[in-house]
Amino acid sequence: MGNGLFFMTEIIFATNNQHKLLEIRSMLENSFRVHGLSELGLDEDIPEDHETLEENAFQKAEFVYDKLGRSCFADDTGLEIEALGGAPGVYSARYSRMGSPVYPEMEVAAGNIRKVLEKMKGVQNRTARFRTVIALILGDNRYTFEGVVEGSIITEQRGADGFGYDPIFLPHGSDKTFAEMDLADKNLVSHRAMAVQKLVNFLQSDHHSIKKG
Ligand code: IMP
Q1: Which residue from 145, 165, 183 has its CB within 8 A of the most atoms of ligand 1, so it is best to mutate?
Q2: The overall pTM is greater than 0.85
Q3: Does any domain span residue 4?
Q4: Of 54, 68, 135, 166, which is most buried, counting CB atoms within 10 Å of its CB?
C-alpha cells in the first residue's frame, strides 16, 4: 500500500442474505471487496444444523471453503433472552416454526416476534442480548470473532427498519429499537458490527496475507 498502488482485498462472505451483505459492505467500504455467494454462483442451501453459534458458523465457512477453496468467513447470530433460558438462541431464524406455539400461517420474522412477545407476556426480566459469532478460514488457520449487544425485549413492536427481531430489541442506553435506527446508527452498536470490526482489525493487521485482486 505504501507504494501508492491500491489493492482491494477480496474475501467471501458465506451468505446469501443481501441485507447482511449490505450491512457488512457499508462497514468495510473501500478496504475489502466482499463477495456474497449468489454472485459466485453458489446458491445451494448451506447446512447449519449444530447446537451452538460457533459450530454453525464453522459449518457454513467449511462448506464454502470446500467448494471454492478461497478464504472466507461465515456468521451465525442468535437472540438470547435470559428469562427464556437463552432461547431462541441458535434457533432464532425459525423460532416460530418449532416447539410451541407455532405460527405457520405468518411470515417467519413476524411469527418469531409474535412468539417472543407471547412468551414474554407478564415477564419482568426482559434482559436479552444479540450474539454474533464469525468463523474465518484462512488457509489452514481457523479463527473466531464474537460481538455482543446487551439490551431488552420491549412489550410492543416499534419501528419499521431493519429485519428479524429488530422491532422488539432495545439496546441498553438507547431510546430507539434497532428498527427505529438507521443502518449507520445500528452499525455503531450492533452485535454483528462488533464481530465484523474484530474481523476487520484482524485482517488489517500485518500478519495475514490473503488473495489480492
Ligand atoms: P443469522 O445467523 O445472522 O442468519 O441470524 C439468525 C436469526 O437471528 C435471523 O434470522 C434473525 O431472525 C435474527 N437476527 C440476526 N441478526 C439480527 C439483527 O441484527 N436484528 C434482528 N434480528 C437478527
Answers
A1: 165
A2: yes
A3: no
A4: 135
For residue 180, give the CATH number of its domain. 3.90.950.10
Domain-embedded: residue 106: yes
Please give the full DSSP string across the chain, using - where no structure is assigned.
Answer: -TTS---PEEEEE----HHHHHHHHHHHTTSEEEEPSGGGT--SPPP---SSHHHHHHHHHHHHHHHH-S-EEEEEEEEEEGGGTT-EETTGGGGGGSSSS--TTS-HHHHHHHHHHHHTTT-S--EEEEEEEEEEEETTEEEEEEEEEEEEE-SS---SSSSTTGGGEEETT-SS-GGGS-HHHHHHH-HHHHHHHHHHHHHHSTT----B-
What digits encode the pLDDT tens for the residues 94-127?
999 999 999 999 999 999 999 999 999 999 999 9
Residue 101, preceding peptide bond in cis (omega within 30° of 0):
yes
Q: Which domain holds residue 109?
A: 9-203
